[in-house]
Predict the 3D structure of the following.
Amino acid sequence: AELVGRFRRPRRGLAAVALTTDSSALTAIGNDFGFERVFARQVEALGSPGDVAVAISTSGDSPNVLAGVEAAQRAGMPVIGLTGGRGGKLRRAVDVAVVAPSDVTARIQECHIAVLHALCEAVDAALTGD
């Protein structure tokens, strides 16, 4: 929402899609291709070179997230990974890994939201010159 709408500064909206929000796509893909492909299939349909993928997995070992990362890389997209603990497989699979230094899911998720807000702030600054 912060990229399509705005974060803090007025700017043009950006094309951004959360692959977790379309329940019709999630259930259809899960039923037809398996839950492991719910992100990969969407990336294959929607992703293009020049896009950036953000992959989030508290353990870093979620098969569906890792398959989405592979699909993004095949599409020529750089991938930022947010994970926790020791980073799991995601840490090594992405271009940029941010690993929350905790094994507690709630703490990892709190770190992730702070990182995502910092990323939105950086995008705002880059687009507005602030």
The chain has five helices and three strands. The radius of gyration is 15 Å.
